[in-house]
Design goal:
The structure holds two protein chains of two kinds.
Chain A (H helix, E strand, L loop, with lengths): L2 E2 L2 E2 H32 L6 H19 L3 H22 L9 H23 L15 E3 L4 E3 H23 L1 H11 L1 H6 L4 H23 L9 H16 L4 H21 L7 H12 L10
Helix pairs in contact in A: 1-5, 1-8, 1-9, 1-10, 2-3, 2-4, 2-8, 2-9, 3-8, 5-6, 9-10, 9-11
Chain B lengths: L2 H16 L6 H24 L7 H16 L5 H23 L4 H21 L16 E2 L3 E2 L3 H23 L2 H11 L1 H6 L4 H27 L9 H14 L6 H16 L5 H16 L3 H10 L4
Antiparallel strand pairs in B: 1-2
Classes of the chains: A mainly alpha, B mainly alpha.
Chain lengths: 295, 307
Amino acid sequence: MTEIFGVPTQALFGQLLIGLINGSFYALLSLGLAVIFGLLNIINFTHGAQYMLGAFGAYLLTSKLGLGYWWSLLLVPPIVGATGIVIERLMLRQLYKLDHLYGLLLTFGLALIIQGVFRNEYGTSGLPYSMPEQLAGGRNLGFMFLPNYRAWVIVASLVVCLGTWFMIEKTKLGSYLRAATENPALVQAFGINVPRMITLTYGFGVALAAFAGVMAAPIYQVSPQMGADLIIVVFAVVVIGGMGSILGSILTGFGLGVIEGLTKVFYPEASNTVIFVIMAIVLMIKPAGLFGAQK
Amino acid sequence: MPRSQKIALGVMAAFFLLAPLVVYPVFLMKAMCFALFACAFNLLIGFGGLLSFGHAMFLGTAGYAAAYAAKAWGFPPEFAILFATACAALLGLATGLIAIRRQGIYFAMTTLALAQMIYFYYLQAHWTGGEDGIQAVPRGTLLGFLDLSNVWAMYGTVFVIFMAGFLLIYRVIYSPFGQVLKAIRENEPRALSLGYDVNRYKLLAYLLSATLAGLAGATKAIVFQLASLTDVHWSMSGEVVLMTLLGGLGTVFGPVVGAFIIITMENYLAQLGAWVTVTQGIIFVICVLTFRRGVIGEIGNYLKKPL
């Protein structure tokens, strides 16, 4: 067996793959957070719970209605996104004139409610969710074994991330969005319905989280707490990247996933904390984050 | 001290002195530890405008340090508590230097992430006993003559620590330092332009808050003879935010009332498992949407007096 720095290549590439998978979820989630933050100026603490709702949505659609993975992938994000729209209309809307911290506190409370209700219903142990048959199995790349589903997760999240980037940076709709981020009053004066845009943006960000949740369901077990710890790591990712740039959050997400995976190979004890350590270092050197602008 | 606050202080002291005659003293000691914790947290958010989402790290760190010092090194309780408080202060200095580099929402996320890092350290470290925590910590003999295994001696000690911490925070809030802090909260660029070294004030406030939160955690560990992961977990950081919000952000007595309500609620709902979390979430939502002044804030507003 070949080795690199005294580590078997199989283990190295295996962890690299896990890193890329985790990175896909970091990227999808931090992207959603950044999109929401850009327009609403709140940090959506419910994001982890909405990711969990995505996974549970897939589980429930399959177990109760017999709809498979692909239907879930298609239906769950809009459904969970719609619950997000309700939240924005009924609650978040009242907070825009207040200090941004109230948005954080409200969404934290919502996350506690959602996670608590699901924990009552389903307990803390994870529920298994089988992957679609079409993506079962894997292929041997010579230097490592690549399960098909994992390859699909990486590709699909890359496509969704880049699609979001394209929509925001290159289309007319995206230009409205960016303009409203800069100066909502002026955009409103041009006759664009900014409040509706805000609502839809929140719904879209939440749908991204739910999409990540559906994709995660076959890999990690579906459990009420699956988003709670993840969201803290994603916060650190967001602090490292800075929320100023869409491409920045995607790059930071994937990059940190890979670094975390490599840490698991070379110094496993630190794999849980490496992202937080990087965050501390980045804050010392460049407080605005790698891609952020100091406001 | 305005008259309204003198009366409130008298009521609070009398309550904690007389309540153990009718209420289970261990429950009251828990309430006082959390009240001090919430007051320390409130110093930062209510008067400095800095929302820390990682305050559990100070509570938990001091808890572990006090428990370890008392159990493994055989420290007497007064030194265990002092040592643990110093550990929390040191952690406050280290994390404060990093966290105050960002403001607002980023500050909250940074403190949360730093606290999670500390949590993972305690989860993996050997001396903290992992999931078991440090159990059966001896309460010891205070100053060589007061046996703390006696519940009344312990109660008196906690009462003195709580009142001392509370009065210290009160003194800080109304000192020139506290006034500058408020100025920074209201308008940071202007405070900066008036020549105040904003970051030094923030760091000092953060450090003070961390130290007092540590004092609460150390006392709690000695009272319950236990230091565990619960006290470092992010849900504890959320709980202290909730206590302060419910009692009234930026009020002097609010955090005490908020802590007392939340602890009472948890005590009664404890059998219901995850419904405690749901109830906490609902209180959060209601407070943010309709009740932003909190209990004491509303009363103070009604009486038109500072409380």
